[in-house]
User: What shape does this take?
Amino acid sequence: MGISGTEITKQAADIVLANDDFSTIVAAVEEGRQVFDNILKFIVYLLSCNGAEIILMLLCAAINTPLPFTTIMILWANIIGIIYVIYVILNTAIIFIHTFFAL
Assistant: This one.
C-alpha cells in the first residue's frame, strides 16, 4: 500500500499504489485482467494467421522438399494482414473519440 506501507515493503514491491483505497486495488486488478485478455487475443490472432505457414514449413522440412515461400513472401503477407487490424483499431479509436467528446 502506498501510504500505510513501510519503506522496505515499498522498495521490495513491483507496484506501489498511490493511495490505500480499496477501489484502487479493484481498478488495478480489472486493468490487469484486461491486459491479460488482450495478450491472449493477440496470441490467438497470430497463431491463427500464421498457423498454416508454420505447419507448411514444418511439413516441407520433414519430407525434405524446397520451401514454398521465401522470407519476403511471408513478411509481405504479414504486412498485408496487419493492415486490417490497424484499420479496425483506428476506427474504434475514432468512434470512441466522437462518443466521448460528442463531436
